[in-house]
Design a protein that fits this description.
The structure is a single chain. The chain is mainly α. Helices cover 39% and strands 9% of the residues. The longest helix has 18 residues.
Length: 87
Amino acid sequence: MIDDYIRPDGTHSALFIIDVQRDTTLAGAAIEIPGTLRTVPYIKQLVQVYRDIGLPIVHVIRLYNKDGSNADLCRRKAVFCIHFSDL
């Protein structure tokens, strides 16, 4: 049973979708996040519900410097390799 303090309030809610773009979602993509592709159908359902009831949806993507200097440490090597693998 959910405590009232942490129960979601559907009238004061926003949906944040973070890092669900091709380079993180598709199998074999440059900075694939394993398992993300399987979540896409559920994310689409949530997006439709939020649209239907008029609640905000925020799509967040990360933009990296070519040298990867602003990437999280765990992603820095992958980001660097994307930009310099074609040199």
